[in-house]
Structures are given as C-alpha cells and as structure tokens.
C-alpha cells in the first residue's frame, strides 16, 4: 500500500464529491420506511477519520442521517462483549446468498440466521442483548457505546423514524416470530423488534460515523473498546456479509470491510489506517448505497487502501 | 501488522507441523474420487514463499499432491487475461451460500453460476478458455502459466487421477449439461468436463504451490503475470468464495484470501508479503482441509498477517 | 363401483375398528399444542353418513375431538360463498410440495399461498371472511354453518384448546406477518390468528363430522348449502391438497377427496354416495392421522368407493 | 352423474370443436423441440372411446401427433407390471409444486424424483424398464403395449422427432446425470435418454389415443392389461401429478385423471365410463394444452363426468 498524504487525500475527497454530485443515475431512495422516503437524493457526504482523530471530509458531512443497519456493527460488538462465543450458537458466520430480509433460509436451517448482518441475524443479536434488560436500558447502552467510539455525545435516536419503521415492520416481525417458533428468540417479538427499530433509527453525521468506526481500525490512537482479535473478526464479518447479497461485489470493487444501511450510509474500515463514512441516499438493487459504493471504489483505488494488495 | 523475522517464522512453521502431526481428529479424506481416497491422512505440509523467492517450510513440503480446485485460481487468471470483464456475463461474483457442487441455484438464476470457484462457475471458466482450442492446448497453457508462476518446470498432470475423476464425474456433467440447456456452455460437455478433470489433476508440492501463488502477492520481486488491479480482484474473490460455504468461517478464523482443494491443499495469499501453501488430506464438512485451516489460523495469529487488522 | 349393502358396511366398520384397536404402531400425538398432547392415543372412531341421514359407526364415534384443520373446509365454503372467485386472487389452487406450515414458498411466490389448506392459505381464507366483521361474529357464522350441515346444534369451540394453541402460534403469526408485509393480509395478524386458532378448536364427534360432510356429497337428500359446481371444486381441492405433502399418498392409497386435522381426524367424501369421518390421534410424518388413513384405505377397498375406478 | 346419450355426446363434441376452432388465444406451440415447432397451431381434435369400443370424435381426430409425455402413462404401467412396488424405492408419488423439468428438488431429496410424471421421474421409470435390455427391445415392448391397448397396429415412432429432441436434450441429460451421481440411474445416461426421447416420439391420432386409454377405465369390455387395484393407482397419480404444476388447476376445472404432453395432447380417464383424447398444439404457461384443457372442461361440465360429484 502506498503512503497517503493528507493534502492529497483532502483533494481526492473534494474530487469524489464533485463527481458524485454530478452523477445522474443515483439509485432509488428506500421507500418502505415512510420517514426515509422523504430524504433528498441529492445529498452526498464522505468523511475519513485517521487514528490520531483527524477527520477529512467533503459534502454534507455535518448533516445527520439514519444509520439503519450500520447499527448492527455496534450491537454485534456489544453482544460479543457480553456473551462472547456463546453468541455463535444462535447465529452463523456465512454469507447468505439471499436478500437481507429473506426468511427461507431460516426454514431450511432450523431458525439459525446465516450471519449477524442479515435482518434475522441482527434481530437475534438484539434479542441476545435484551435478555433481562429493558429496551430503554439497552438503547442507552448502545448510544453510550457509539458516543464513546465517536468521542461525541451529540448522537441520538430519531423517534419519528423508529415509529415510522415500526408501522411497517411486518417482515421483521415475521422473522422474529419464525425464530420464536424454532426456539431462537428469548423475548416477546414486540419487545425485540421495538428495540431493533429504535437501534436502526440512530442518527449520525458522516463525520461522527467515521470517528465511531475508529474502534475497528486497530491502530495506536484509536479508542480501545474491543480486543484486537475481536476487531479482526468483526472486520471479517463486515467483509463477508456487510452488504448482503452484494458483499462479493463490494469486496471486488472496494476491497474493504464495510457495512451499509438502507438510509444510504456505508461505514468502511481500512485496518491499521482509517475509518471511512459515506452517505448517498439512493440504493442499488441489493439495498446498498449506489453512489456511496462508487465513491469508496474511487477512494480505495486512489489510496491503494484495498486489503487485497 | 507486525514485522516478521524469518528465523521466528521458520520456528513457527516447525511448531505448527509438530502440533498438526499430533492432531487426532484429522477430518475425512475425499472418497468420491477413488485415486484421492488412497492418500495417507497423516501427511502434512506447510510452505511460505516470500517475495524475494525464499521458501520456508515444514513437513512433507516436497511431496506432490493433487491441487484439485486450487487450479481454479490459475484458470480464472488465464480467463480474465483472455476475455477480461466479458467473463462476468457468464458467471457472478457472489458467495453462494450453498455446497460447492450445488445445482439448484443454477435453476433459480438462469444458468449463471454464482462465482468462479463453485464447480459450476469453474466449469464455465474452463469452457470459456476452451473456445476454439483443443483441450490439449488449453491444458498446456495452464501448465505453462503455473510453471512460470512457480519458476519450476517439474509440474505435471496426474493422468490416473484425471481418469479416476472422469469416471465419477456425473454431477459435474449434470452441471455442464444444465448450463448447456440454459445457453451458458459453448463446447460439448464431454470436452469441457474432460478438460476440467485434467486441470484438477495437476500435482504440485507445497513448495511449488507456495511459489506459484506469488503472482497474487503484488510486491516487488514477485512474478508479474497479472496487473495489480486484477490481483486485488482475484484475491477478493478468493476471500469471498474460495472455501465454498465455509468461506465466512475461513475469513473469520484466518483472515486471508485463500482457495482450497478437495485433495487437502489450501493456497493463501498475504497481500504484499507472502504466499502460503498447506496440505493435509482430511476434510471438514464443507470440503476444506481441516488441519490445513487450523495451521493457517495458527500462522495468521502468530504473524499478524490477517488483512483485517 | 359396487353397490353397498348397509349390513355389510356396518360389519366392515366393526372389523376395521377391531383391527385398528390392535395396531401397535399408532403414530405420534401432536405435541406442539399442549392441550392436544393430552389426548389418549388409543382412541379410534369411524362413522359413515349416507345421503338419507343414516349414520353407521364404530368405536369412539360419540366422543368429541378437536377438528383442527378440517375446519378449513368449512371456512373455504363460507369464503367462496361470500367472495366467489375473487378469493383466488389471494390464494392458489396447487399442491405445495412442502410441509403444511412452510413459509419459503410465500417468499418465492410473492406472499400468495399455494392453496387454501396449507396453513398460510387457510389464514388468508379466515382473513378474507373477517373483513369488516368481529371475530365473534365470524366464529358464530362458522358454528352456524357446521351445525346446519351436521343437523346438530351441540357443536362448540373448546376455548382451552384455542388458548393453548394461541400460546404457541409463533409460526402461524410469522406466516400472517409475512403475508402482511407482502400486502396479502387485511386485518391485524393478532385478530386473524386469534380467529384462526378458535376455528381450529371446534370440537365434533365422528358422527357429527360425518354428517357435516354431507353437504359435499352432492346427492338427493344431502343439505344444499353450496352449488354443485362449487362442491366439485372443493372436493378437487381436498383431493389435491387436503393432506399437505402426503396428498399424493392419500390419493394413491384411498382415492377419495379428504381433509385431515392435526387432532387426528379425517373427513373423506365419496361423491354421490357418502361422507366419512375417522379419528385416531397418532400422526404420520406428514401430520396426518396414521390409523385414520389406514382405516380409510381398508374401507375404500372393501366398498369400491375410490373415485379412480 | 347423469347418464350420457350418445347422440347428445356426439353433438357436444361437434359444438366443442366449433368453439375451439374459433378461439383466438390458442397458447404457444412448444419451441424447444424443433420438429414440434413446425406443427400447425390451428389443429384441434377430440375423441371419446367408450368401453364397448365405440369412438365418438370431432376435428382432426385421424391426424397423428406426437404424444410426448403421455407416453409416461404407458411406461409406468409397464414398469409396475415388471417391478411392482419396488419401483417406489426410486421415485415418489407426490405432486412436485415445481416445473416439469425442475432439477432442484432432486438435490433437496437425494436424487429421488417426486413422481413418475415429472421428467426426472419418467427418466427413472424408463431406466428401470431398460435394465438388462436393449433400447430397441424396450421400445418394441412399449409399442406392443400401446397397440394392444388401442387395438390398432398402425402406431409408430417418428424418428425425426426423436432425433430433433435428442439434439436439445441437455436438460434431460442433466437430470439423468444428476441422478446417476446420487445412485439412482442404472444405465449410461446416453442409453436411458436415447430411449426416453424415442418413447416421447410415439405418434398417435386422437382416436387411437382415446382407445389406448381404455385399459385405465376399468369397465366390462375394456382391455384388461392391468389389475383393477393398479388402475386406480395409476389414475390417482394422473390426477395428482399428470399436469405438472398445473395439476391442481386441471383437477379444479376438469375433475378427471389426465396426462398431458408437450405436443398438445391430453389423455383423460372417466373411471368406469370412458377414455378421452384431445389435441391442440398451443400450450399454457405450465406446458399443458391450453384449448385441450378448455375442451375437457366443457365436456366434463356437459356430461357430469367429473369424479368429484
């Protein structure tokens, strides 16, 4: 990998923003959560946090957006901290080869979701954290973790988004109830899904999200919230499963562990070097940010940051 | 990542060999190819090739074994060199979530295999190279490529293994004929499968295989058979799909791009640093070398070579 | 078909009962609904209702049992009476090739269940009847229909069974919520499933059930609750889908339209001739009464009542 | 069922022919077998054979057409005569819920096809008859059986159709090779598929086909080629599986055991009463004759011949 000059990097981010602003095909904003459907598809942000805390940025990097499924990275870190490898008796570690909200593999594989990043798996992770606690306490712990990672207390849950998502959560409830039927849910589905939609409704700016990802960079100066061996494993899971059935494509084009959210954000980790957040609300057919992926592809090529050589 | 001292590395390889020799649960040697079923399950080898051409090793590293599906890495490199991105109209780039020899996804996805490393995908790659050539010429080109990569002309195809595999190739013929029915095969299935079983019957020692992998390391001193951008992409595919439905597990435990073969070999790439070959004939339930994976897990932990931080 | 002498038929029923009482392998009583798990597996009943109202019987034919999925025949008749062919925009008419409670076909076929007798399909039927009504009113209409068909007002819902089933209804709720997500549910799932578990908890004796089936026999003297063309269609659906993924086996062995329930009951129709109810609580692997099926096989052979010649 | 007057029946057939001739939407003629694609879509025939040997007819009832999958009924009868219930260890008796040429269920169910009428199942049946015989001898036996049933020696195999089908038989070869891999094929796939495509290429007129179906009617006067108990079972299989994933629809609309062929023919059995053949080359989306099904629906309604009351 090539060394990266900060001034060059800042210039590269500006260039990427310029290019993405002009893109005509921007993907479709998620429509199944009414509150998210209102977001302006012209928004674009990119932010790079370095281990020393510096953040380089371009675009709407100070505008909060709904992190949605990116929250799964934080709940996974919390769940592994609480349960350790016991978590793996309830959820697998393999790519699914199917859509993020698919239910059929649950039937074929006895109610054990394929990985913690498809919806069913993330619901299990949330259910595991809930055990014996109130949703309010769990959501408090999540916010505490994210704020600590980001070094910023001004991070909140958007209740309107949570309520909006709750109203159309039929498919997630179906996943939860199906797992309950197979003995893989510990709390009432209403409690688990209620917590889940609130966790997805966390709002962060690209700057905050890039900073919050530093705990996965594993370099001197980064917050030490998780042991190095676990960092490597979470990054491996992000690489393999972070973009649902588009994970292979993301690895092929970008070459970094990443996690996308239906709000149009992506968090990508450059092990040992940087944490990157991008945001563009339009999605591709796999439900990942279309321009966000393109921006990361440009950035990885320009910096030589791909983990693949 | 930590710097690696060669003496320490040699010591580590010796220690790993010692440990693997004593393992009691060694997995089951592949039985569906009669010639492979004869191999002694007590065999073990590990070899690490560095960019300057040095090879460190332990165990039966000078004993040839059948590389089987590891050959798919070399045919993919050849096919991309010949067809470039056109290849991707005939085969995808996503993990399958299914067994290496599964046929059902072909039916659900119009005869387009999920990736070049499941059997159906590798058959398409071989079929693509064949177009307009004789099997003999294609196999000659493959051997030429491998010998060049390894810097060693003493690499051959074991005809007895090829004949043995041909006799039980019903499932691969079924995959080929199914793709023919969907318009995704250009040659008679007998020709394509005949070439395919011979490509799988290439025999190499761990030393040769480790050397042959250097063209994917992308460091000064390594053979330059493929452009850097393509190296990154092949490594990405190995990471995502190189161990079939155990790819997530391999990424989680080892953290390196790798490709396994049913003969018990695994080739793993450390981008910028090294190429590793391991060999232990016993397989786990996903068809990947059981002790080979464990050896790589030990080695990656000891060296800090995981790409994930 | 041979003419059937009533005395001979009565003798045959007695012989069948004797034989079934002595069977050692009786199948397993359904365990997932706690109240049903308490039923004595030694119970056995058979009753044959003729168009003139005569009922011949043997065994525990006056003991009420939970009709469970047999109720789906009555709700289908009511739904077709109310909606006519509009119902078929929400549910199909083909065998499923899968278990009664499978969810995966819903995902592959856009939330449209395969037929009205798999759980998902029956839930849609109940949901269709509910529209604009209170569960209490719908259950009242169902009881009215059954009582009229049976000519017997002493038919009721066992609330304890309904409550017991409600408590373990996760999988049915998952089916309902999944269909809600696909736009194929009109009422809150709690309302639809609440009604559904009560409809399944109707209790009838074999005598009552045999009589209640006469409306599908289409012969002079039978209650005329449904037009002949619709009778033929309901019988066709019972033949094709009435025993889930064991429907082919039932047709092969018995040769009559039938509908089974997890309580161990089966209603079978002999078009133009008779309605038969059998009850034996032990189930085979497809969830159909094991001895009930055997009893019907004996009876069909002795009477020549198979519709297949 | 109503008694049927022959003059009225003849009039009804003429009326049906008239109506079908005028239909504008006729379905699409099968295109994947080049020889079949040449057939005139305007052709239409209907013939009814009664137990006394009388045949009533309308349309092109003396024009030979390719019976294709209708041949599966005759090979099943032969296989059951030769092997009895042993056949059922290699093929099931349930509807598949999938297309006629689907391969995925083979993978999920260990190479055992769902029933003898989907392609995979019919290939197993042919493979079972072949054992120890030459294809020529087996095809001779098939022709002998059909000629005997039809009381007509002028029934032959169209070699041009067989050759045409052989050239595009990739999918059937895939099915055969997949079953070979699972241990469910006894002969080389080339031999079994070669026999299979010839069996499908038998040509018959509607008159001949209606007569040939009489052995399944089970009434005095009909040829006695199969015992009554077996007749009932073959009819049950035709009802449940004779129209692939459109079997439910056929039962719902027509209410008779039937078997369709991709050449546009359908054989339907009225147990105890008649054998019916229809022919119209255009197919519906499930691969069954579109107008042939409609004609049978009209005929069944007019005669009251549905087995469902």
Secondary structure: elements and pairs:
The structure is a homotetramer of 309-residue chains.
Chain A: H1 6-22, E1 28-29, H2 34-37, E2 45-49, E3 55-59, E4 65-66, H3 71-83, H4 104-108, H5 119-130, H6 135-150, E5 156-157, H7 159-167, H8 170-181, H9 189-200, E6 202-204, H10 206-212, H11 228-241, H12 247-253, E7 258-260, E8 265-270, E9 274-279, E10 282-283, H13 290-303
Antiparallel strand pairs in A: 1-10, 2-3, 2-9, 4-6, 5-6, 7-8, 8-9
Task: Report a brief summary of the structure.
The structure is a homotetramer of 309-residue chains. Chain A has 309 residues and is α+β, with helices and mostly antiparallel strands. Chain A is 46% helix and 12% strand.
In the CATH hierarchy, the architecture of the largest domain in chain A is 3-Layer(aba) Sandwich
CATH class of the largest domain in chain A: Alpha Beta
Helix-and-strand structural type of chain A: alpha+beta
Structural domains of chain A: how many: 2
Largest interface: C-D, 43 and 42 residues
Approximate strand percentage of chain A: 5-15%
| Portion of residues within helices of chain A | 40-55%
Number of beta strands of chain A = 10
Total helical segments of chain A: 13
Highlighted features:
homotetramer; about 300 residues; alpha+beta; Beta-lactamase; 2 domains; three-stranded antiparallel beta sheet; 13 helices; 10 strands; globular
Provide a descriptive summary of the structure in words:
Four copies of one chain form a homotetramer. Chain A has two domains: 6-63 and 204-303, DD-peptidase/beta-lactamase superfamily (Beta-lactamase), CATH 3.40.710; 69-200, 3-Layer(aba) Sandwich (Beta-lactamase), CATH 3.40.710. Chain A has helices at residues 6-22, 34-37, 71-83, 104-108, 119-130, 135-150, 159-167, 170-181, 189-200, 206-212, 228-241, 247-253, 290-303, and strands at residues 28-29, 45-49, 55-59, 65-66, 156-157, 202-204, 258-260, 265-270, 274-279, 282-283. In chain A, a hairpin with a 4-residue loop joins strand 7 (258-260) and strand 8. In chain A, the strands form three sheets. In chain A, strands 3-2-9-8-7 form a five-stranded antiparallel sheet, with helices on both faces. A three-stranded antiparallel sheet of chain A has the order 4-6-5. The longest helix of chain A is centred in the N-terminal third of the chain and has 17 residues, at 6-22. Chain A contains 13 helices and ten strands. The interface between C and D is large, with 43 and 42 residues.
């Amino acid at each position: 990998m090539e060394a990266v000059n900060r001034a060059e990097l800042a210039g590269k981010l500006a260039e990427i923003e310029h290019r993405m602003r002009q893109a005509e095909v921007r993907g479709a904003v998620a429509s199944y959560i009414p509150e998210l459907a209102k977001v302006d598809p012209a928004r674009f942000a990119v932010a790079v946090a370095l281990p020393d805390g510096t953040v380089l940025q371009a675009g709407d990097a100070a505008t909060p957006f709904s992190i949605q499924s990116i929250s799964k990275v934080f709940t996974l870190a919390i769940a592994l901290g609480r349960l350790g490898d016991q978590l793996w008796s309830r959820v697998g570690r393999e790519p699914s080869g199917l859509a993020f909200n698919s239910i059929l593999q649950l039937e074929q594989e006895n109610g054990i979701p394929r990985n913690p990043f498809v919806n069913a798996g993330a619901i299990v992770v949330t259910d595991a954290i809930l055990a014996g606690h109130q949703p309010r306490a769990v959501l408090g712990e999540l916010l505490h973790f994210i704020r600590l990672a980001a070094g910023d207390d001004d991070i909140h849950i958007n209740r309107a988004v949570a309520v909006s998502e709750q109203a159309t959560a039929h498919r997630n409830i179906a996943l939860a109830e199906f797992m309950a039927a197979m003995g893989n849910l510990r709390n009432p589905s209403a409690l688990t899904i209620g917590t889940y939609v609130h966790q997805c409704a966390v709002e962060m700016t690209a700057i905050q999200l890039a900073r919050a990802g530093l705990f996965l960079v594993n370099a001197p100066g980064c917050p030490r919230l998780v042991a190095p061996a676990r960092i490597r494993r979470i990054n491996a899971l992000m690489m393999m499963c972070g973009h649902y059935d588009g994970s292979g494509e993301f690895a092929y084009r970008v070459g970094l562990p990443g996690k996308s959210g239906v709000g149009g954000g992506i968090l990508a980790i450059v092990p040992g070097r940087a944490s990157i957040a991008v945001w563009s609300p339009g999605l591709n057919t796999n439900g990942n940010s279309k321009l966000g992926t393109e921006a990361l592809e440009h950035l990885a090529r320009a910096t030589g940051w791909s983990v693949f050589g």
